[in-house]
Amino acid sequence: MACLYVIEQGAEVTKQGNRIIVRKFGTELQSVPAFKVEQLILMGNIQITSQAIKFLLTEGIDTVFLTINGKYRGRLVSSFSKNIDLRRKQFKKLEEAAFVLDLAKKFVWGKLANYRVLLRRYQKEVQKEAVEKAIHSLRRLIEKVADAPDLDSLRGIEGSGSAIYFSALGQLFKNPEFRFEKRTRRPPRDPVNVLLSFGYTLLGNTIQSYIDLSGLDPYLGALHSPDYGRPSLALDLMEEFRPILVDTAVLRVVNTKAITMKDFYVPEDAPSLPEEGEIEDLTPEDYPILLTYEGTKKWITMYEKRLQELTFYPITEQRLSYRQICEQQVRLLIRHLKEEDIYQPFVLRM
Amino acid sequence: MACLYVIEQGAEVTKQGNRIIVRKFGTELQSVPAFKVEQLILMGNIQITSQAIKFLLTEGIDTVFLTINGKYRGRLVSSFSKNIDLRRKQFKKLEEAAFVLDLAKKFVWGKLANYRVLLRRYQKEVQKEAVEKAIHSLRRLIEKVADAPDLDSLRGIEGSGSAIYFSALGQLFKNPEFRFEKRTRRPPRDPVNVLLSFGYTLLGNTIQSYIDLSGLDPYLGALHSPDYGRPSLALDLMEEFRPILVDTAVLRVVNTKAITMKDFYVPEDAPSLPEEGEIEDLTPEDYPILLTYEGTKKWITMYEKRLQELTFYPITEQRLSYRQICEQQVRLLIRHLKEEDIYQPFVLRM
């Protein structure tokens, strides 16, 4: 286990010998040896003892505080990342316009290529004309990436690609209760969008923990321009993994009925569908629909399960888990910044 | 109150309304409105509730975990500092050799000038020849700072200045039990050195909290070269404040007998004086002499008292507390990095 989630409200995290223990009302819920845990995610109202805090800081286990709905609240750090030499390289290279454009193209290329692979894999089964068309449109867009003269036109290509992809994605769901027409966020407006948003938050945590541990500054990226409070580098590195890790897992939980409409509820004070993107700082009351506690547990389990699946990683020519591949891609980016290697997005084989 | 220390072992920090409460065995020890707290320092075995953690993260109160001996363990952060534009400026300017040398000179100049002011102030009273000589030697060294051709010779001047200053400092103590011959660290070998080391740790926390809040990267400085794990910028900014805030407070607690030899103890397993600088990762057993719990409380109180004293701050032409001046100097450095103003060290008037 690389990531330990604690979501049982009112539970307490303690330390005993070299183990992390989760208890509630005196009952032991989880007991994990520290060496198996890279990241501890505490969701909502979870107590933690000072001995556990000391232990986590000493062992260098990334500890993240989320709300029960998966919103980021903060983390425990032993210090600002110590690797200052790496950050000097990062700030030098990511101020060079040509380097930035080239790297941004790799992220967009990887995302669109994985969008296309996902559609093609599912198309074998569903055989829908709209999906076939989307696959072709994506191929044409992917060919344009290399020639994008600047970041703005590159972001235009990425936007068109996402629009094409999400309009086709709805065709791949087999449970008619889960209609998906378009991507909506802030707040997500239907069950599929709720799963997507939560999944991207989880993916963001996965990527950001490897960025933090590496010593890179998560706020300076290439495709996502630097902006106050935006973890641009984490957003960049997430792109190629979104369809592979989150969207694939959403399709699975819906199509296998691992998650059903019973795992959602409409909050009492739910507003009449707010405009998309209108609300910057969401509270649960702003969500028209939410995952139940059981649904949250299921979704986290399915996401983590996907991360633990093995696949072939061409750079090291090994079978690795997707989680390990996330870490490897951060390392590859570091070698790219140091000009020791060339970054290549991780693209699924068809 | 800007900084709330919790050192009562086994105490618990909770949140109630907008107040931070410290309790032990059900008894309320401290109760402070959150708006009065900029920084919360938890030393040793202090429990903290998840509600308090949530509250501290939301309110942006810097929360630092120290060992009972004042060693840094970690902190709670709502994110990596968000102000990426400022860090881009910092990395750009602090890669320019001429800019770095000029800024480093200001830090050294400020430190040596304040060393000299401190010696002169006390010399009025003690009238010792060795001190008089040190004051003159420091003046000659201070004149050399501007002409230093590179960082290495500048660091040489700083080293000579510190040696001259510390050899004179011993003349200023009035309590014969507190003999001070030279500065020793890792571990500090006598009571004065214990107070100095602990004081510099506290000062480091004060400065670093303003650096962290500002969004600067504490690991990239000018006088202190970037090195893995070294908070160079915090060390730079501390220089001018060391004699003013720490050394002055040490002289006071010793000369007024606010702290006496009864506030120290020799740990049971104390080694026979280890070589200075030999031990990188100190544990209490490596210290030949330590502050007692009561001594720790007294020393923190005296340090904080010094920080709250008011003095004239020439840049804004106001009377400010020394704590506010620390913050102002971080802000002045930011304007210097943005080329909106020129950094000047804060130097005490004679």
What this model shows, in words?
The structure is a homodimer of 350-residue chains. The first copy, chain A, has ten helices and twelve strands. Chain A has two domains: 74 residues, Ribosomal Protein L15, Chain: K, domain 2, CATH 3.100.10; 254 residues, CRISPR-associated endonuclease Cas1, C-terminal domain (Four Helix Bundle (Hemerythrin (Met), subunit A), Up-down Bundle), CATH 1.20.120.920. Helices cover 47% and strands 15% of the residues of chain A. In chain A, the strands form four sheets. Chain A has a four-stranded mixed sheet. The first copy, chain A, has a four-stranded mixed sheet with strand order 4-3-2-6. Chain A is globular. In chain A, strand 3 and strand 4 form a beta hairpin. Chain A has 350 residues and is an alpha/beta fold. About 1% of the residues of chain A have low confidence. At the A-B interface, strand 6, helix 1, strand 8 and helix 2 of A face strand 6, helix 1, strand 8 and helix 2 of B.
